[in-house]
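// run 5 | inverse folding | seed 20
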């Protein structure tokens, strides 16, 4: 094409289609990991999809007298009683999961590691998506020391650094706090 050539409408459409197809090319050899992306206060977090047993709408959470402020209470899940915690407190964020802050987007994520499970009250589930493992930064520089202990790294989601929670470290910290 010469410098004075103005592309026709069909040429522009063809170029746009080619560019879109380039964006859709995926390296099929690259290993991926399914992540559940959720919001808590004004922060976005990720958790491995294999650790999330289910997502529940928020119903009535029954408070347990004398329990740690970390725990909001319990909920019945198919005949099983599951504790629900406020992860904002564990992650040293401002608790935004009070009953007045709950809305129709709030969810309880039932997470599990081996035989242990618990519910986490989150403000919203933003996405469930496969991410290439290469997208994970294992040495994030932007996390606080408290948060770094509970994270396996971070990745970019919607151009925002998003910490990836380490489920094993999460349950270990819960056990230490509750004993």
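// decoded
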């Amino acid at each position: 094409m010469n410098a004075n050539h103005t592309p026709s409408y069909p040429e522009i459409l063809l170029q746009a289609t080619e560019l879109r197809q380039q964006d859709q090319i995926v390296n099929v050899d690259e290993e991926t990991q399914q992540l559940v992306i959720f919001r808590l206060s004004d922060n976005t977090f990720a958790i491995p999809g294999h650790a999330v047993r289910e997502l529940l709408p928020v119903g009535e959470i029954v408070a347990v007298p004398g329990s740690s402020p970390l725990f909001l209470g319990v909920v019945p899940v198919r005949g099983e009683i599951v504790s629900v915690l406020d992860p904002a407190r564990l992650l040293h964020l401002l608790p935004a999961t009070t009953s007045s802050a709950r809305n129709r987007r709030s969810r309880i994520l039932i997470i599990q590691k081996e035989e242990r499970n618990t519910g986490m009250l989150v403000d919203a589930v933003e996405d469930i998506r496969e991410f290439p493992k290469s997208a994970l930064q294992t040495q994030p520089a932007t996390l606080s020391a408290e948060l770094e202990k509970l994270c396996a790294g971070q990745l970019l989601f919607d151009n925002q650094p998003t910490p990836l929670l380490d489920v094993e470290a999460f349950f270990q910290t819960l056990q230490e706090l509750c004993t």
